[in-house]
Design goal:
Largest sheet: 10 strands, mixed
Subcellular location: Cytoplasm
Helix content: 25-40%
Low-confidence stretches: 1-6, 8-14, 171-178
GO biological process, one term: methylation
Distance between the termini: 33 Å
Number of helices: 12
Shape: elongated
Cofactor: [4Fe-4S] cluster
Number of strands: 14
Function: Specifically methylates position 2 of adenine 2503 in 23S rRNA and position 2 of adenine 37 in tRNAs.
Protein name: Probable dual-specificity RNA methyltransferase RlmN
Length: about 375
């Protein structure tokens, strides 16, 4: 039975599960897997070192492991999970979007973005999405399946390797370039899918990403943001995990009447229930909540809605990210007028609510999640 808040999906008939991978397993489980093929358990730590720390994924690079054992260990713990269909860059090479093909032919996307003061990677947690938000390219495509923990983790591991090798932006010199840091600092679960609908595997991925090396990548939990459209039971469960990640609530409307249309899951959990669960997470994690709000022209960008949102959020541990909508081809939804965006910001600030208009990246490379995969179908 699924845990509270975790949604299930029906896999297509004949669909094969992703192969078991080192990143799916805890350190103890890795040792058991290695011992199960007749190798000494300490080989699991060596493999973890190669995968997470050295980013050495080819068996011939594992010179501390006997040549006769490398192929067998690769088959057991480091099978090929996914392959690059193509990379597309923009923003003078500082943004790179990757289209991945998984073992079963499923397509997913990730985006690596370098800024002057940080490097952020946006990753997918599902192939497609079942939340059916009408302005979202991924939602229009529907849900194919959940990603495994390792399929999530590998997107980030590959991003770390790409940064190390100077593939995004200028080649690193001494760990830095003229365009800012070359080490991954932030991960946002805002790519394809609803992360909390794939709860167990997303939490597993967070553990792998933040476990100290060589068991994981050794990243900071505080640099990870997990988004949700408002799956209240899963949000409350997430609050009890003891994590220090940031929770981002994709609200998009402050009133139930409109949000029922823009975010259909609102028909099950209303705005106030979603926000109450967010404040519960904030209290237990001591982290401020992000409220994500895509500004859509003449739909949700009225000043009175900004005023209502400000009254709901006033005095709460929250920051609002206003997102100029990146429209999808053929969609009736488009970005707000600059003057309406400015008025929305002013109305929120009048309530003392901190607000930022998100920097838009990747518009010329099918930047909205799901657009690139849709062109490949």
């Amino acid at each position: 039975m699924p845990a509270p808040g975790e949604l299930t999906f029906v896999a297509p008939r004949g669909a094969a599960k992703p192969p078991r991978h080192l990143a799916d397993l805890t350190p103890d489980e890795r040792r058991e897997a290695v011992a199960g093929v007749g190798e000494k358990p300490f080989r699991a730590r060596q493999l973890s070192q190669h995968y997470f720390s050295r980013l050495a994924h080819e068996p011939e690079q594992w010179t501390d492991i006997p040549a006769a054992a490398r192929g067998r260990l690769a088959e057991v713990l480091l099978p090929e999970l996914m392959s690059v269909v193509r990379h597309i860059g923009c923003d003078d090479g500082m943004t790179r979007k990757t289209l991945w093909r998984l073992h079963d032919g499923t397509l997913v996307e990730s985006v690596l973005m370098r800024y002057p003061d940080r490097v952020t990677m946006c990753v997918s947690s599902q192939a497609g999405c079942g939340m059916n938000c009408p302005f979202c390219a991924t939602g229009q495509a529907g849900l194919d399946r959940n990603l495994s923990t390792a399929e999530i983790v590998h997107q980030i591991v590959d991003g770390v390797r790409a940064l190390r090798d100077g593939e995004v932006g200028d080649a690193p010199q001494g760990g830095r370039t003229g365009e800012g840091p070359s080490r991954l600092s932030n991960i946002v679960f805002m790519g394809m899918g609803e992360p909390l609908a794939n709860y167990k595997r997303v939490v597993g991925a967070i553990r792998r990403l933040t476990d100290p090396a060589p068991d994981g990548l050794g990243l900071s939990q505080r640099g990870i943001t997990v988004s949700t459209v408002g799956l209240v039971p899963a949000m409350l469960r997430f609050a009890d995990e003891g994590l220090k990640c940031r929770l981002a609530v994709s609200l998009h409307a402050p009133d139930d009447e409109l949000r029922d249309t823009l975010v259909p899951v609102n028909t099950r959990w209303k705005v106030r229930e979603v926000l109450d669960a967010a404040w519960e997470y904030a209290a237990k994690s001591s982290r401020r909540v992000s409220v994500e709000y895509a500004l859509i022209r003449d739909i949700n960008d009225q000043t009175w809605r900004a005023d209502l949102l400000g009254r709901l959020l006033k005095g709460k541990p929250v920051h609002v990210n206003l997102i100029p909508l990146n429209p999808t081809p053929g969609s009736k939804w488009t970005a707000s007028r600059p003057e309406d965006e400015a008025a929305f910001v002013e109305a929120l600030e009048s309530h003392g609510v901190p607000v930022t208009v998100r920097d838009t990246r990747g518009q010329e490379i099918d930047g909205a999640c799901g657009q690139l995969a849709a062109t490949e179908r």
